[in-house]
């Protein structure tokens, strides 16, 4: 009798272990982008992204639905940024061009965090120089704050050192966000990501849809 109990117990353990393995495997398969991800977000990717209303380079009011109508790489910065923003956006533009050469259409997006100076006209000059498809967005201080909060970004205007109110720097986070029309935010890229690596990862996400 003891032997029978032992056999039954062993079979139960095997079945339980198999069930846990299957459940875990099924959970992993729920994420169709699992093989593409190289970053993690506390609470899941649903914590980043969301609706926004801003103003484009023509002065027209647009929403996130208007802007993210195709895969998009979104960056928050400002046109008067002396070094970081131009470098990061040039990297993003290069990645978009590489993707275009591979047959992928990805929209580069630049959202200003400096509404006092970044007018639609200022943005148009900045974006036209970097890439013909780069979309520049600005808006009121409240609109920009709402967009920034949706994407969990940080920015803070610094007091001008020489007292000239027209010349100041803005501290800000420097992530680039890959956002898809149906899925929303799916991945972010750090500053040290090369355009080649970025293009490769974006292509992985687009192929996995």
UniProtKB/TrEMBL annotation:
The residues the record assigns to binding Cu cation are 81, 85, 172
Q: Does the entry feature the keyword Methyltransferase, yes or no?
A: no
| Keyword vocabulary terms for this entry | Copper, Disulfide bond, Metal-binding
Q: Name one GO molecular function term.
A: metal ion binding
Taken from the UniProt record, the cysteine pairs bridged by disulfide bonds within this chain are 81-85
Q: What's a Pfam family this protein contains?
A: SCO1-SenC
Q: Which CDD domains match?
A: SCO
> Which PANTHER family does the entry mention?
ELECTRON TRANSPORT PROTIN SCO1/SENC FAMILY MEMBER, LINALOOL DEHYDRATASE_ISOMERASE DOMAIN-CONTAINING PROTEIN
Family per UniProt? Answer: Belongs to the SCO1/2 family.
Name the UniProt record assigns to this protein? Protein senC
